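Input structure tokens:
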């Protein structure tokens, strides 16, 4: 089951990471391509515009008379120093001017320039500026890649001129190809790393689930063990009764009493188990009201004193407060106090057994401390006593009870926004300390 959950988590984590990488990769590719193409296109438009400015000049003659027009001289110097090439055709598609080193034939460039008039029959991009329309196209021949821009102009005679500007884009294409390679490699490496990372994350995510399942298995094993003992005692005693068919019920009283005690114990265990099961499912309702904790403790002590197991134990309530009110569920708090008193009674020892319940106020909390002079708990076992069915030592294992009391007590305290802790000295005494918010109090 855990393997299936792990594989599912790994698949989800891997898919999410791969999708994120793919989206980021596509975004970077689109942005980079658009940035490079926009830069090239803007340079081509600018050079086409500059070429239009000199459309009224005889380009052939101007080559030999550069001193006549300084602007044109600057224009040609700029062309010489840039990667952009310019070629101008007249209305008969004859070349009348060119500047730059073209690596393709004029005839091929003429065909590219004619895409300006293609009316959608060839793939192209057009940009409309104030001085006219600029048409872009890509040209590729063997190892040469060009980005071209075509526009039209009219000279002073009204004759049409077709202006083509072009820039070699081999480096840009190589850069984009390298980027694609790096991005694809990133996706592959990222996918591998995501699988490894997903495996680690899945393992960590499953720790609480595994812990819960292990606790559940341990819980079932402990519950089975706890129920097996009373069932075995009941069965043994009933078998003794059945084996003595001639004896009367009164004569069998000893065995029947043993069976009855174990049945009561088993009923207590089952009741506690059902309570914790409902608590785990949040199916136990709370009825909060303003109650006096002093009164509840006094009442619980009086009820406990009447039990046979408490006959030789002194139980006292000490506090300088007459009333301390808390917002709580009366029945749950009563159950909490009875659990703590019962727990202290079980583990009290010696001739001078005593249980002292002290109630005090610290800042915004009421502090309830139940002290017994019992067997005590070792330091390494203190954190484990709230675990279901956990018993510290042989003296506790031999004590009859469900082993669930402190687990229930902890649950009640937590649901009242409180805290429960234990301080103990092995062989001397144990203090169970509870803190909960209070609403008001009255001193004696």
């Amino acid at each position: 089951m855990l393997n299936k959950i792990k594989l599912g988590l790994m698949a989800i984590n891997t898919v999410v990471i791969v999708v994120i990488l793919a989206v980021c990769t596509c975004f970077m590719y689109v942005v980079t391509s658009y940035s490079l193409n926009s830069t090239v296109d803007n340079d081509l438009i600018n050079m086409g515009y500059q070429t239009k400015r000199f459309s009224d000049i005889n380009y052939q003659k101007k080559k030999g008379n550069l001193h006549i027009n300084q602007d044109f001289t600057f224009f040609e110097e700029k062309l010489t120093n840039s990667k952009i090439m310019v070629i101008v055709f007249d209305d008969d598609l004859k070349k009348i001017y060119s500047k730059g080193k073209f690596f393709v034939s004029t005839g091929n460039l003429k065909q590219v320039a004619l895409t300006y008039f293609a009316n959608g029959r060839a793939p192209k991009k057009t940009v409309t500026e104030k001085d006219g329309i600029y048409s872009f196209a890509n040209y590729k021949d063997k190892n040469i890649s060009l980005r071209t821009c075509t526009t039209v102009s009219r000279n002073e005679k009204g004759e049409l001129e077709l202006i083509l500007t072009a820039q070699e884009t081999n480096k840009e294409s190589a850069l984009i190809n390298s980027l694609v390679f790096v991005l694809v490699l990133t996706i592959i490496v990222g996918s591998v790393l995501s699988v490894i990372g997903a495996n680690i994350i899945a393992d960590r995510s499953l720790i609480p689930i595994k812990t819960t399942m292990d606790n559940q298995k341990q819980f079932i094993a402990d519950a089975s063990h706890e129920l097996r003992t009373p069932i075995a005692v009941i069965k043994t005693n009933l078998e003794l009764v059945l084996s003595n068919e001639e004896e009367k019920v009164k004569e069998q009283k000893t065995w029947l009493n043993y069976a009855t005690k174990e049945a009561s114990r088993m009923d207590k265990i089952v009741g506690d188990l059902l309570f914790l099961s409902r608590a785990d499912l949040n199916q136990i309702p709370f009825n909060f009201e303003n109650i006096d904790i002093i009164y509840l403790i006094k009442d619980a002590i009086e009820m406990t004193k009447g039990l046979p197991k408490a006959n030789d134990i002194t139980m006292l309530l000490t506090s300088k407060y007459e009333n301390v009110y808390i917002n709580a569920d009366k029945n749950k708090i009563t159950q909490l106090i009875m659990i703590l008193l019962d727990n202290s009674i079980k583990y009290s020892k010696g001739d001078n057994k005593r249980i002292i319940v002290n109630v005090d106020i610290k800042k915004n909390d009421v502090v309830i401390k139940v002290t017994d002079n019992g067997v005590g708990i070792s330091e390494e076992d203190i954190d484990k006593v709230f675990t279901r069915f956990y018993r510290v030592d042989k003296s506790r294992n031999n004590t009859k009870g469900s082993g669930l009391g402190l687990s229930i007590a902890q649950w009640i305290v937590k649901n009242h926004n409180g805290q429960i802790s234990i301080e103990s000295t092995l062989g001397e005494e144990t203090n169970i300390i509870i803190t909960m918010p209070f609403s008001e109090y009255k001193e004696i």
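Confidence is low (pLDDT under 50) at residues 394-399. The domain at 288-443 is CATH 3.30.565.10 (Heat Shock Protein 90).
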